[in-house]
Amino acid sequence: MSSLLRILRFAPQLNPLYLGIAASAVLAALLALATPFIIGAATDRIVDAVAGRTSVSDAVTSVVWLALAFLAAEVAATAVVSVGGYWGDVMAARMRRILSSRYYDHLLHLPQRYFDTTLTGRIVSRLNRSITELTQFLQFFSNNAFTMLITTAAVLVISAFYWWPLAVLLAVVFPVYMWLTAKTSTRWQVWEGQKNARVDTASGRFAEVVAQMPVVRAYNQQRTELVGFEERFDEAVALTREQSRFWHMMDAWRRLALNAVFGALYLLIFIRTAQGEFSVGDMVILIQLMAMARQPVMSMSYLVDSAQRAVAGSKDYFEVLEQPRERTDGRALPAGAGEPAVRFRDVTFAYDADAERPVLDGVSFDVHAGRKIAFVGESGGGKSTVTNLLMGLYPAGAGAVEVFGQDVAQTDLAALRALIATVFQEPHLFSGTVRENIAYARPDATDAEVRAAAKAAYADGFIEAFDDGYDQVIGERGLRLSGGQKQRIAVARAVLKDAPILVLDEATSALDTKSERLVQAALEDLMVGRTSLIVAHRLSTIRSVDTIVTLRGGRVEEIGAPDELAESGGIYAQLLQLQQAGTKEAKKMLREYGILG
Ligand SMILES: Nc1ncnc2c1ncn2[C@@H]1O[C@H](COP(=O)(O)OP(=O)(O)OP(=O)(O)O)[C@@H](O)[C@H]1O
């Protein structure tokens, strides 16, 4: 329950709405209480007329007035309930917005490690479920709980006024019912958690499959995917059976006990009326009051049920919110004069803390401002990891990564990343227009700046050829563009960012030669005057850099200029020899180093 209160404290701006909803609920409850008295009074008038104690015409006049009073109370109650319902809807929508944006904001600032270990679909499914269940509960609670509370209290007081044993019996029902319900809820929660885990796994896979549909089709795995998906849901159905059987069995017992108590209450009312202790009008009032008291007790099951879901949902929600965010309060990064732009000092790193062997093991190198450095090594040798650490996506396990003389571990990560433009191996594009994709680093860039960046990336030509030019909408993940076009848009994005450090993960897939030449030329231009770190997949690129770092088993094997390393007999020299050999075997070995040509 404390997590629910936490949610309420999350959105203090909604307090006026809660108050408004509570006030309208109280008013609606009070208006509803008028009905039994009006009907009771009308009954007494009619009984008096039938018994000949008053004239029929007096009775009819009174009954007409009472009917009008009934109508007025109902009209007022309808108005109040409608306004309260409207406020409830607005509150729920605003709550959903607040909770979703908090979650998204937090997610956007979680360390990369979180995303490595959590499926996208699971993140989305959790968010949807938590927030839907929380808002549904809050809406039901604010629209009904106060009405229920007021009705219950009023019924207790009024029945005590008529005959105290009625109130005592009623007063016992509520806590006992609540207690029984709460007892069932602990077991219910365990099942709910298990069900949610199954649904999240299925949703995670679902999102993966949708994103990689061509692979699923190419390997004819639609059936397997569907079966796996259905299995998770079958498990959820099986769990629901147990959970629901238990819940409804307990609920049946609760209701049975409740009905027994209400049966006793009605019996007492009838007997006392027969004995002449209550008038027929009193009896009518009391019977209606009892019916009104039954309502909250019955709704309590739903309230507890939705509260349970909300508690489970808010646990999931806070589990994500409690994950520590990336550091954004570190020092800003002044470009230290004379310091190397990038320096790795004895860096050791493993993605998995329990790994037997680190991915990087005592890696050290310097890159001076404006120089180009290439990383060469077998596939999986840790080249991309070097760039990941430079961007602060993961913290170094030991040693230090420095940018312009500042330890990355102490710096503000946003400030660090502002200094680095990255062209990823896979050009990641978003759905939207070409312009939006290029201007991703600087959404405020002018059209002229966007165009200049596209020109520098040799992309202007094909963009202009689109029907809508720069306003051409490209599909999700850039599906409507060729590989080379996507890459040039990614390069244009880096050009527009205009950062002093460039990280370039060369594409491992060979593009057709013309396209490749254009991408290469664009990258060459981009590197001019910038400190460039390149994960190289082409010997031509490697040949043109200032320094080569060769990596083997996570350690630096050699560092030197291309000419030096060409003679040293190390990895680079071997790669050159393999290229010259040109045999099938040699090509295979080159591929193990991710070298395409
Ligand atoms: N996010 C991650 N979580 C766990 N392990 C990872 C992660 N990324 C990479 N690895 C592992 O770290 C090692 C180094 O990977 P890295 O991507 O740096 O290699 P690479 O030299 O760039 O390879 P390639 O040339 O094939 O791209 C590999 O063994 C890989 O399995």
Describe the structure.
The chain is an alpha/beta fold and 597 residues long. Among the domains are: 2-321, Up-down Bundle (ABC transporter transmembrane region fold); 428-498, 3-Layer(aba) Sandwich (Rossmann fold), CATH 3.40.50. Helix content is 66%, strand content 10%. The chain has helices at 2-10, 15-50, 56-108, 112-117, 120-162, 164-211, 213-218, 222-274, 280-321, 383-390, 413-418, 434-438, 447-456, 460-465, 483-497, 513-527, 539-543, 562-568, 571-581, 584-592; strands at 342-349, 360-367, 372-377, 398-403, 406-407, 420-423, 432-433, 473-474, 501-505, 531-535, 547-552, 555-560. The strands form 3 sheets. A 6-stranded mixed β-sheet has the order 6-9-10-3-11-12, with helices on both faces. Strands 2-1-4-5 form a 4-stranded antiparallel β-sheet, covered by helices on one side. Strand 9 (501-505), helix 16 (513-527) and strand 10 form a beta-alpha-beta unit. The longest helix is centred in the N-terminal third of the chain and has 53 residues, at 56-108. The two termini are 63 Å apart. The chain binds adenosine-5'-triphosphate (ATP).
Condensed summary:
With 597 residues, the protein is of the alpha/beta class. Helix content is 66%, strand content 10%. The protein is elongated and about 125 Å long.
